[in-house]
Each structure stands twice: as structure tokens, then as C-alpha cells.
Specification:
The complex is a heterodimer of chains A (65) and B (343). Chain A has one domain. Chain A contains one helix and three strands, in the order βαββ. Chain A is 15% helix and 51% strand. The two termini of chain A are 15 Å apart. With 343 residues, chain B is of the alpha/beta class. Chain B has eleven helices and 14 strands. In chain B, the strands form four sheets. A six-stranded parallel β-sheet of chain B has the order 3-2-1-12-13-14. A four-stranded parallel β-sheet of chain B has the order 6-5-9-10, sandwiched between helices. In chain B, α4 links the parallel β5 and β6. Chain B is globular, with a radius of gyration of 19 Å. Classes of the chains: A alpha+beta (65), B alpha/beta (343). At the A-B interface, β1, α1, β2 and β3 of A face β8, α5, α7 and α9 of B.
């Protein structure tokens, strides 16, 4: 049973139009398997968009403590 | 008492974000009981219901671990109510013998005095090495040094017939810390909560069983100024009783394709209730994206991820009492907008 390592992750994400969940999961999965995540800040941008801060714990396959 | 059909409702108070109500030792239980009465069916998670030595059991309340609740909201899981679960007890090898014995005695007490089915008991083959941390926002997170050891023990319990798993991990202690003092006096974040969530999420996701976690800690010195919201954690030697009671009737977790009549699925959910500043979690977002009404309750916390910031339409409630009124309105088919002036 080899899981890899649990690692904290802090991401900044520019929100795109459309549902948020798929955007967040796509960004997190680039780093590993998301175990727990939440948007912990949302900052409106002058451009009219929004920058999201996401904190997560991910399982990074192949990495071992 | 409403005569309308129950309105299945999801109640979320995220763990470790310092919510004024629900950020301590099961101090959201009164709100959960009220929302259960208003809706007739409440699906919520251990952070809401766990008060260490204190607990409340209500057949209208479904106790679902956080990541399973997220998957339920995403339409991946269905929930099947059961009469009882057989709870396997998973103990961290890092727990000292005397503290371990205290936990075994809680299991014995729940068997003898509450009639719960508990066992077998499995110790991990190496210490889990839990560590605590705070994220950039100040909310609590945590890690496990040996996640494989957790899963090996969990798989052993499942193979032995456990249908739910209560995990007890040895948590690091710092009785003199400022954070702990603030928490005990009602102004801090539960520093343990983030790591607890990681443990139960991992186990539940990998094994597909209802799971919940209790930290093993040495008793703290008496604090005469203890905040009542934290008091549930200082009444006994363990935090385990509430977990065993919660899991004893936690619903089975099924893939959505296995669902049959009588099971709960996200399509039946009529509302989600969450703190107004913490709407950026997986369950709330998934439900909102399905068009399920979100009731955003004034419940100050460390985060300010509100409906405006996320572009969500919500029903605002100044308190859980008001949220209960809104749930009752939805259950009875009354438009919440009709209850406000101007129309």
C-alpha cells in the first residue's frame, strides 16, 4: 500500500468564467491527488476578475517522507 | 412541527477555521438539532456533532465524515441509513499504554451502557506521527508521517468485518502554547482540527467506510476561566465517546450507481446551510453549482470567502434561528422572498 506523501499546498488561481469546482480541481490535480481543500481568500481584481487563494493537502504519488 | 415532507439539508461548519459557533467542542450541536427539527432530515459532519465526552443522537441527523459529505454533494456518493454500524477501533501505536487503556475503557463503556457494537480493535504497526500546522490564512491543517500505516490498520479492520472506523491518533501537545490558551478561552482556532480532518478524509476515501477521528491527548490542568464552548473536551480522559455514538448510526456510503429507494442522494437535498464567510469549500460549491439554495449564516470566522466574493446567490440569515425559519419556509413551499419587505 504505497500512497506517497501528504503535502500542504498553497495556490493562487485566477478565476475563469463558469463553475469553480472543476477549475479548482484541475489546478490541484496538477500537483497530486487533493485530499482536502478550501478557498481561503477571494480578492477582486481591477480587471473585473477574481484571484482565489486555495489551501489544500494533497497526496503526491511517488514521494515518501 | 411541520407536516410537510422532510427537506434533506446539508449543514457545514468547516473544521479549524475558528467559527464563533461550531469552532469549539461540538458547540454547534444546538444549531444542528434546531435545523434537524426544521428540515426533518439533516446531513452534517463530525465537526458539528463531536463534543468529546458529550454527544447527541437524533435519527433525523446523518453523521457523515467531511470528505464523504463533499463526494455526496458532488453526486458521487449516496447515503443509506442503517440501524447500527459495527465500529472498528483503530489506535495509533504512538499512544502510551495508560492513555490507550483509557480509550479501551470508553469503548467498553459504550458497549455496556449504550449498547453499541464495537470491535475489533487494531493498533497501527508504527506510530502515525501526526504534525500540526497553520495555513497562510491562519486556519489549521496537519499531516501524517505514516499514512500507509493508517491504511494498513483500516484495511485490517474492514477485512475483520468493521462497517465503520473510529480512529484515535496520538496528537502532539504543547500545554503552554498561546494558541491553546486562546482556544480554551474562546478566542482561537482549534489547532487539532485540520490534522483530524486529514486522517478521516484519507481513511474514508480509501476504504469507503464511515470514519471519524478522536485525538489522544493527556488531560490539561484545570482552567477556571474555561470557555463553555470548549468545556466538552475537558470532562474526561478521551474525546472518543462522541465519535463512537456518531458512527454507531452513520449511514453507509455507496456509489451513486448503487443507490436505491430510501437512500439519500444529492438530488433530494433542498438546502445547504454554511457560515457566510466560509462558502469556498467543496460541499457548498458543489451544491451551489447544482442550483441548491445556500443559506449563508452570520457566523464570524477567520475567512471572508462570502457570496459576493464568489458570485453566488444565497439566502442570508443573521443566525441559525433565522436559518431554521428559512428551512421551514422552503420545506413548506413558502418563498423566502415573500417573508421580507419590501417585496
Amino acid at each position: 500500500m504505497s500512497l506517497g506523501e501528504l503535502q500542504p499546498l498553497l495556490l493562487q488561481l485566477e478565476r475563469e468564467p463558469g463553475p469553480l469546482t472543476p477549475q479548482i480541481l484541475r489546478a490541484l490535480r496538477a500537483h497530486g491527488r487533493p485530499l482536502r481543500w478550501a478557498i481561503t481568500a477571494a480578492e477582486p481584481q481591477a480587471s473585473g476578475g477574481c484571484r482565489l487563494q486555495i489551501e489544500a493537502v494533497i497526496l503526491r504519488p511517488g514521494a515518501h517522507p | 412541527m411541520s407536516s410537510a415532507a422532510p427537506l434533506p439539508t446539508v449543514m457545514v461548519i468547516p473544521t479549524g477555521i475558528g467559527c464563533e459557533l461550531g469552532g469549539y467542542a461540538g458547540d454547534a450541536i444546538p444549531a444542528a438539532r434546531l435545523l434537524a427539527a426544521a428540515s426533518g432530515c439533516l446531513i452534517t459532519h463530525p465537526n458539528v456533532m463531536n463534543a468529546a465526552a458529550l454527544y447527541w443522537s437524533d435519527p433525523r441527523i446523518h453523521y457523515v465524515e467531511g470528505s464523504s459529505l463533499d463526494r455526496f454533494a458532488a453526486g458521487e456518493l449516496a447515503l443509506r441509513p442503517v440501524r447500527r454500524q459495527r465500529i472498528g477501533l483503530l489506535l495509533d501505536a504512538g499512544i502510551e499504554p495508560e492513555l490507550r487503556q483509557r480509550h479501551l475503557q470508553v469503548a467498553d463503556g459504550c458497549r455496556a451502557s449504550l449498547g453499541l457494537e464495537i470491535g475489533p480493535v487494531v493498533d497501527t504497526d508504527q506510530p502515525l506521527a501526526v504534525s500540526l500546522s497553520l495555513g497562510a490564512s491562519g486556519i489549521s491543517w496537519g499531516r501524517l508521517g505514516c499514512p500507509e500505516a493508517l491504511l494498513r490498520a483500516g484495511a485490517q479492520l474492514k477485512a475483520a468485518g468493521a462497517t465503520a472506523i473510529a480512529v484515535v491518533a496520538r496528537f502532539p501537545e504543547d500545554p503552554g502554547s498561546e494558541a491553546l490558551a486562546a482556544y480554551r478561552q474562546g478566542s482561537g482556532v482549534d489547532a487539532l482540527a485540520g490534522a483530524e480532518a486529514v486522517i478521516s478524509h484519507l481513511l474514508s476515501q480509501e476504504l469507503g467506510l464511515p470514519c471519524a477521528h478522536a485525538p489522544a491527548l493527556s488531560p490539561l490542568p484545570l482552567d477556571p476561566d474555561l470557555d463553555p464552548r470548549a468545556a466538552g473536551e475537558e470532562l474526561g480522559y478521551t474525546f472518543l465517546a462522541c465519535v463512537l455514538v456518531g458512527l454507531s448510526r452513520a449511514p453507509d456510503l455507496l456509489t451513486a450507481g448503487q443507490a436505491r429507494a430510501g437512500d439519500l442522494q444529492i438530488e433530494q437535498v433542498g438546502a445547504v446551510v454554511a457560515p457566510a464567510g466560509a462558502l469556498g469549500g467543496a460541499a457548498v460549491l458543489a451544491a451551489a453549482e447544482r442550483g441548491i439554495p445556500v443559506i449563508a449564516v452570520h457566523n464570524p470566522c477567520l475567512l471572508q470567502v462570502d457570496a459576493h466574493a464568489l458570485g453566488l446567490e444565497v439566502l442570508n440569515a443573521a443566525s441559525y434561528s433565522e436559518a431554521a425559519g428559512l428551512l421551514l419556509a422552503l420545506r413548506e413551499g413558502i418563498s423566502p422572498a415573500a417573508l421580507r419587505r419590501p417585496l
